[in-house]
Amino acid sequence: MRAICPNHKNHKRFVTVVQITQEWIVDEIGDFIEVSHECLETKHGPRERNTWTCCECGTEAVVQE
Questions:
Q1: What's the domain count of the chain?
Q2: Helix/strand/coil (H, E, C) string of the chain?
Q3: Per-run averaged pLDDT (10 residues), the chain, 65 residues
C-alpha cells in the first residue's frame, strides 16, 4: 500500500484514521475527564480504504495497493 499526493509527488506525510485503545479517567457517570494513557494498543493501523489527506497541501491522496 502506498499513498501518493496527486499535486506533489514529493509530499510524503498524510493524515488518516487508525483505531487504538486508550485508558480514560472518567467521572462517576462515565463522562470523559482526561486520557490516562495515550495508547495501550493499536487495533487497526492505516487502511487503504480510509481517506488519506496530504499534510503539506491538504489534498486527498491516491492510495495504491
A1: 1
A2: CEEECCCCCCCCCEECCCEEEEEEEECCCCCEEEEEEEEEEEEECCCCCCCCEECCCCCECEEEC
A3: 95 96 95 90 93 97 93
Domain that holds residue 30: 2-64
Contacts of 29 (CB under 8 A, 6+ apart): none
Which triple of cell numbers denotes residue 13? 506525510
Q: Note the pTM of the prediction, 2 decimals.
A: 0.77
What contacts 35, CB < 8 A, 6 or more positions away?
22, 23, 24, 25
